[in-house]
Specification:
There is one protein chain. The protein is about 40% helix and about 15% strand. By secondary structure, the protein is α+β, with helices and mostly antiparallel strands. It has a three-stranded antiparallel beta sheet with strand order 1-2-3, covered by helices on one side. The longest helix has 17 residues. The chain is globular.
């Protein structure tokens, strides 16, 4: 999908991937301005996902890893948008609930520093934690946080195999002060 977006050649895309690309184009056109920094673009995508994604609490969706699914869908969607915006991003697969639940989130790189982003747990409808409504400060509890913060908030992963998120500059509070 990212390659088709960059080249404009959609001939190799499945019907489903072509539809996803079209939605992505519409979102980027509506949400991203040319004068936005990469951090502001990341925040706009984060908020769009949270405001528009639907968490499949039954875990029954056949498309759980696509933009239509559960936490892996949230993480994959975020990574897809970051790829379209040329912002380095990886998906981390780990666990939560004292390692009783599979979970996924992202690491994003801004100005050389890595930040952790958990769009699932920032979504008021995400089903895991009690999150305030959109545009309230608690709506960004897991936006551009450190790996240490995630360890303290019931996220587990292979710590030796995943890049540490240690960035603290591009937080939600910093970005909203800039506006």
């Amino acid at each position: 999908v990212v390659e088709a977006y960059r080249t404009g050649d959609t001939s190799a895309l499945s019907e489903e991937d072509a539809a996803i690309l079209e939605i992505c184009r519409q979102v980027l056109e509506a949400e991203i301005d040319n004068d936005m920094s990469p951090a502001e673009q990341e925040l706009a995508v984060h908020d769009w996902i949270i405001d528009h994604a639907a968490y499949d609490e039954t875990h029954s969706s056949p498309n759980r890893s696509h933009p239509y699914g559960i936490c892996m869908g949230y993480a994959n969607t975020f990574q897809l948008f970051m790829g379209l915006l040329d912002i380095p991003c990886v998906t981390v697969i780990g666990a939560s609930s004292d390692s009783r639940q599979d979970h996924a989130w992202n690491l994003v790189q801004l100005d050389g520093d890595w930040y952790a982003v958990d769009t699932t747990w920032d979504d008021p409808l995400g089903g895991f934690v009690d999150v305030p409504a959109a545009n309230e400060s608690g709506h960004h509890t897991y936006f551009n946080v450190t790996s240490d913060f995630l360890r303290q908030t019931d996220h587990q992963w292979d710590y030796d195999a995943v890049q540490e998120a240690e960035g603290t500059y591009w937080t939600w509070r910093h970005l909203t002060r800039r506006r």
